[in-house]
């Protein structure tokens, strides 16, 4: 069973190639509020296409609230580029090549293909928010393509979280 990183602690490292030929590193991000990491299953997933399409519609609104977003998957560069282009996700950064070990470090569920069009191995969806200082604030990890947080609801809560200095929850460790 995966172990999700603990909110209130430093987020795991993340350094991935982008489809534009550069690299993205979590430790180098400097959002006003949060870095939002959206892990999607891959090009084969129609639910991901819909979810990331919704994110594209809200992207500028998230940016206006200081939330910078990146899409991440275990897909190859070719498959990530195809998803980005075919799903109309520009200008949201698209990373690819998440390793199985990196996925496990982030507490992601890992699946094996059950259909020919699926990647052999892929990470199930997740949404993470990381504060500018590298602290993990929010971790929503799913083992199913059908269970994901509502992006409009999350967007609506950014101001409250920031203005009220609302702390990360779920930080109590077992005795």
UniProtKB/TrEMBL annotation:
<dbReference type="GO" id="GO:0016491">
    <property type="term" value="F:oxidoreductase activity"/>
</dbReference>
<protein>
    <submittedName>
        <fullName>AhpC/TSA family protein</fullName>
    </submittedName>
</protein>
<dbReference type="InterPro" id="IPR036249">
    <property type="entry name" value="Thioredoxin-like_sf"/>
</dbReference>
<dbReference type="Pfam" id="PF00578">
    <property type="entry name" value="AhpC-TSA"/>
</dbReference>
<dbReference type="InterPro" id="IPR000866">
    <property type="entry name" value="AhpC/TSA"/>
</dbReference>
<dbReference type="InterPro" id="IPR013766">
    <property type="entry name" value="Thioredoxin_domain"/>
</dbReference>
<feature type="domain" description="Thioredoxin">
    <location>
        <begin position="5"/>
        <end position="163"/>
    </location>
</feature>
<dbReference type="GO" id="GO:0016209">
    <property type="term" value="F:antioxidant activity"/>
</dbReference>
